[in-house]
Amino acid sequence: MASMKSIKLRIKSVQSTMQITKAMKLVASSRLRKAQERVMKSRPYHEVLNKTLSDIANSNSDFTSKYLGTREIKKSLYIVFAGDRGLAGGYNANMFRMIEEKTKGKECIFLPVGKKAIEYFSKREREILTKSFPLVGEIQVSECFEMARIVCDGYVKGDYDEIYVAGTKFVSILSQVPELTQLLPFVPEETDSPRDVILYEPSSEEVFDSIIPEYISGILYSVLCESAASEQGARRMAMENASNNAEEMIEKLSLYYNRARQAAITQEITEIVSGAGGGDE
Which residues of the chain have pLDDT under 50? Predict the structure, then answer.
């Protein structure tokens, strides 16, 4: 009887957990649809800016800019997008694993975006540029512009010599891939097409330098949208798997409960029969 009672309590506990995971799956599915729309709208923006910057750089043979060219790499800045909470499968773990691999042996400073990223780098006492962006879900385009201004100012001052952004690309609900993209120094796209002679006012250098912060803010917003969609996709799959596991566990526990109940009934019948036989004698 004690075993039957503990199994029954365990079944109720798993059922309660399954209700939570199913609710979280529905919430993640709803948020995922909105996040996917943002991804599709954000992708063309930075592609157009990247083409424009490449055209400016490639159309002028004597073109120079503070955002172009290589210099001795003494310190690198990594902007890392992670989640605001857990229960998203390997979403956060995969990102941090990639960062550790890419930054091994390098002197780095980090700009974490998201609660989990801030917690990760703070616990490991890594150098952090700013903690001004703790919640990915609350970041808007204006915050991306602010982030771009901060990192560009530091790059121009020489606080770091290269800038990378790490985010998770949303491939599908089943696949989210951590990616690392170089922001600065800017590397123009190679082109074999004839170069058009374009006159920029006041100068191509000033136009280029004024577009770079806009370009970086666009990239950051695009990475933000991709990462947000990836987190919701990963959470949806994690909650679906958890719900399926809970259903399997309930089936097994119900089987154990029925077996224990049958054993108890059989034992009671045996005792009654034995007692009746003893009374006849």
Answer: 281
